[in-house]
Specification:
heterodimer; A: about 190 residues; alpha+beta; B: about 100 residues; 4 helices
Amino acid sequence: MAEPAIRRLLASDDTSRFRCGDQEYDLFLQRYAGQNQDRLFVGTTYAALDGPWVVGYVTVAVGQLDRDDVPSKVRGGLPRYPLPVLRLARLAVDEAFQGHGLGRRLAAYALAVALQVRAAAGCVGVVVDALPRRVSFYAELGFVELELTSGQSAIRPQPVAMFLPIGAVEAALPSSPMRRGSGAES
Amino acid sequence: MTHATQISAQISASAKQLLDEFSAVSGIKKNRIVEDALWFYVRARLELPESAMVPARMVLAERGAAAAERSMAPPPQATPALRRLMQTIERPDEA
């Protein structure tokens, strides 16, 4: 099986065969992802392609973390103004391509997009709406659970909002000076 | 704007700040920004089911704010799993 290429979703991409095991995620790709991206400009979807067919996707949108309701005693060192983030809203892989690392590649791709957003417009980190069964995967990557009072995803079952600071993403890059001498990875 | 009327609404301090700053930078009057934003929002909500929307604003609860602050404390740390994930990073295409 050739490795699917990943790029921004195009209107000409064929999403009709996509089946990930969750109909809501299939329907989102087939009906709403392009609309969100090209007409409403509220999110961008990056697609993994096997020929003309989409076999995986990740949808991201810019967002902000706000602390209006947080008492001053816990504001700590964070600024009062909203913090810009990239929200990883959906990630899904077609059943025929599951178990081959495509989901991990899409997650890495979204983190690379976050680095680009940071350079272009500012971004302090990534918030992922993690399905309950995927929380441990994101926790292993360093994401921490966020308790929100509003702005939760409406997907069901309710995802868990998790946060990863952009500094950690940069520190994980192969070229990062933060990696030199760590010897942690082979 | 024809048949203009007035509304009053309680909004967050940060939303008010965003409105003030955007109006100052863009030169667009605040009533026009509010009206345009409402049209965009309502149109989007009519065309998309709630589950297809990605809320742009997330308000942190007390524990959420503390967790975010702890995770952002320097120096930035990457877990071994994150390093492995980013080992074969692909350059996103230009939007």
